[in-house]
């Protein structure tokens, strides 16, 4: 069976206009700008307006991705949207994005793998392209997290922001397996996914699902908000992301020196730096956009990718290693030639 190659043909991202700075957070909890910058690398985050939903952010990022891929909206064969903060329990948010785009004839699916969601979604989309089922898939990571953040908990409220990133994953029609290391060879080389449900309590939103419905009491006690065991999670994040990266390099007979860019999940600059150290990749090759973004969960990787494509750091033919980690504990990497 011929397997087609899937490459990233277009990217887009969207940051809501409203900003929440470290100085703003100083007024809410016992924290300070210096601590947040030193311990996380974050200076400010975008926060969606009251009337802005996850599908609104996803729609804006998608418009950019479609434009940069130079395809028509009707060329989209499938929409996969990764999020932990859907507009509703149902319908899924991908269907709402489809409607906002004004198209009808494609399936639309949400994926839930927390901060690893986009990497999972890209891996699933890759299968549909490889097998020849679809030619163009809109893959999105989008979150409006601030509604699930407890702004009296300084352990978590300093971290999270809202945003969306989108990509068009397309069949590489030029792909020729006999031509290696050329731009014709653009596309996903492999993906590596993992999960460890036994450690789910390290990062969770306890209420709002079938295990615990939301009651006035729960709302009052912020039971619908993110709770995190930061220190333990930190160690697991470094370990898992390093492992997923090593698997990708080994699978493709590449070394750290072959990689042009690593785009890790933007959870904390110290986590990003620790992963780079484990891989022995210089920080100049690591995309770190957390300063003005914060942790936007499933959206961090596609947002950082779009920024680095737009500012010219990532060029056609570069080896790019995407890697993420999140609640679950999910993790995943995608190695691709951009
Ligand atoms: O997206 C999914 C993946 N996410 C992650 O993996 C996040 C992983 N965790 C982290 O990023 C870090 O653990 C945090 C940023 C959450 C916390 O950083 P830390 O270096 O692990 O701090 P800590 O919790 O060990 O706290 C150190 C000190 C403590 O004070 P004492 O006990 O040393 O006196 C805390 O009470 O800093 C204190 N502290 C703060 N001080 C000012 C904790 N949070 C704050 C704060 N402002 N916001």
Describe the structure.
With 338 residues, this protein is α/β, with parallel strands linked by helices. The protein has two domains: 5-172, 3-Layer(aba) Sandwich (Peroxisomal Thiolase, Chain A, domain 1); 184-197 and 226-337, Thiolase/Chalcone synthase (Peroxisomal Thiolase, Chain A, domain 1), CATH 3.40.47.10. The chain contains nine helices and 13 strands. It has helices at residues 22-26, 33-40, 54-69, 93-101, 117-130, 216-220, 230-251, 269-279, 300-310, and strands spanning 6-14, 18-21, 44-47, 78-82, 108-111, 136-143, 163-171, 187-195, 203-204, 227-228, 261-264, 319-326, 330-337. The protein has a five-stranded mixed sheet with strand order 1-7-6-4-5, sandwiched between helices. Strand 4, helix 4 and strand 5 (108-111) form a beta-alpha-beta unit. Helix 7 (230-251) runs parallel beside helix 8 (269-279). The longest helix is centred in the C-terminal third of the chain and has 22 residues, at 230-251. It is globular. Oxa(dethia)-CoA (UT7) binds at residues 31, 35, 39-40, 115, 154-155, 158, 203, 230-231, 233-234, 237, 267-268, 271, 295, 325-326.
């Amino acid at each position: 069976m011929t397997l087609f190659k899937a490459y990233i043909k277009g990217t887009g991202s969207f940051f809501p206009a409203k900003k929440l700075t470290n100085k703003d957070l100083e007024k809410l909890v016992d924290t300070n700008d210096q601590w947040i910058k030193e311990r996380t690398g974050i200076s400010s985050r975008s926060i969606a307006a009251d009337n802005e939903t996850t599908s609104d952010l996803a729609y804006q990022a998608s418009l950019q991705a479609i434009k940069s891929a130079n395809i028509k909206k009707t060329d989209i064969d499938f929409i996969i949207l990764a999020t932990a903060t859907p507009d509703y329990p149902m319908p899924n948010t991908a269907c709402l994005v489809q409607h906002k785009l004004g198209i009808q004839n494609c399936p639309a699916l949400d994926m839930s793998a927390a901060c690893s969601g986009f990497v999972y979604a890209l891996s699933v989309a890759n299968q549909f392209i490889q097998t020849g089922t679809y030619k163009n898939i809109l893959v999105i990571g989008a979150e409006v997290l601030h509604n699930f953040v407890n702004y009296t908990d300084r352990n978590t409220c300093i971290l999270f922001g809202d945003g969306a990133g989108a990509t068009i994953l397309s069949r590489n029609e030029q792909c020729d397996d006999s031509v290696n290391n050329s731009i014709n060879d653009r596309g996903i080389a492999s993906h590596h996914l993992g999960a460890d449900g036994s450690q789910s309590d390290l990062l969770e939103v306890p209420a709002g699902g079938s295990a615990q419905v939301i009651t006035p009491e729960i709302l009052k006690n912020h039971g619908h908000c993110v709770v995190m065991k930061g220190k333990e999670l930190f160690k697991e994040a470094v370990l898992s992301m390093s492992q997923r990266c090593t698997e990708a390099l080994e699978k493709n007979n590449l070394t750290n020196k072959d990689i042009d860019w690593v785009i890790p999940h933007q959870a904390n600059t110290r986590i990003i730096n620790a992963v780079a150290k484990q891989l022995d990749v210089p920080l100049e090759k690591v995309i770190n956009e957390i300063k003005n973004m914060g942790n936007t969960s499933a959206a961090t990787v596609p947002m950082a990718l779009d920024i680095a494509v737009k500012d010219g750091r990532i060029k056609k033919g570069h080896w790019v290693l995407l890697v993420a980690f999140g609640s679950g504990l999910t993790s995943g990497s995608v190695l691709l030639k951009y």
